[in-house]
Amino acid sequence: MTDADSSDEPRAPSAYQIEQAVSAWQQLKATLLADEDLADDENPIGRALMAANITDPHILLERLIDATIWLERRADEAADLESEMYQRKQRYSKRVERFRFQILDLLRVLELKSRRARLAQALLTSAPPSTVITDEEAIPDKYFKTTRTLNRQELLHDLKAGEDITGASLSTGGTTLQIRKLR
C-alpha cells in the first residue's frame, strides 16, 4: 500500500461504492425512522442525517462520524447526570434516615404509638426477628452461596501463551474502528 492509497483525501466513488453508500443510507434511514426515542433524545442527529438523500459515500461517512462524536458526547453528559442524580439520591437517603430517627425519638419521648400527619402516619410496630452474625467462620458451608466466575484475563493470557484449552480459542483479531475527536 502506498502513501497515496492511505490518504484521507476522497477519491471519486465508483458506481459500486455509490450503490453501497445508498444502500447503507437506506438502512440507516430505516433504523432512524424505527427508533421511537430518537425524536425525544437526539432530534438534531435525526434532522442532520435525514435532511437529504445522501448519495455521496464521503458525505454519508462524514455525517456518520460527526453524529457518532455527538452521540458519544451525549452519552458522557448522561453519565455525568447519572452520577449527579446518584449523589443526590444518596443525600436524600441520608436525610430520610436522619428524619426517621428523629420521628422515632419524638414518638418515644412523647410516649406515642402513632401520629398522623397530612401525608402519612408514623407507627411504632414490632420488628420481625433478624439474623445477627457473631462469627461468620463458624457458620456451616450450606448457608453460603458459591458462584463460578470466568477469569477472562487469565484465560486470554494462557491462550496467547499457546495453551490448548477446551471450550475457548483465540479470535483472529480483525479490524476495529477508531474515531479520534478533532475538537
Q: Count all strands and give the number.
A: 2
Measured distance between first and last alpha carbons: 30 Å
- What's the number of helices? 5
Rg, please?
30 Å
* Most strands sheet: 2 strands, antiparallel
In round numbers, the mean pLDDT is: 84
Oligomer: single chain
If strands are numbered along the chain, what order do they take across the biggest sheet? Answer: 1-2
Cα shape = flat
Give, in order, the helices and strands: HHHHEEH
Residue share in β-strands: under 5%
Which structural traits does this protein have?
two-stranded antiparallel ribbon, 183 residues, 51% helix, single chain, mainly alpha
Structural topology:
Blueprint: H1 15-34, H2 38-41, H3 43-50, H4 57-109, E1 114-116, E2 121-123, H5 152-160
Antiparallel strand pairs: 1-2
Provide a descriptive summary of the structure in words:
This protein is mainly alpha-helical. The chain starts with 14 loop residues before the first helix and ends in a 23-residue tail after the last helix. It has a domain at 15-97. It is flat. The chain has helices spanning 15-34, 38-41, 43-50, 57-109, 152-160; strands spanning 114-116, 121-123. The chain has a two-stranded antiparallel sheet with strand order 1-2. Helices cover 51% and strands 3% of the residues. The protein contains five helices and two strands.
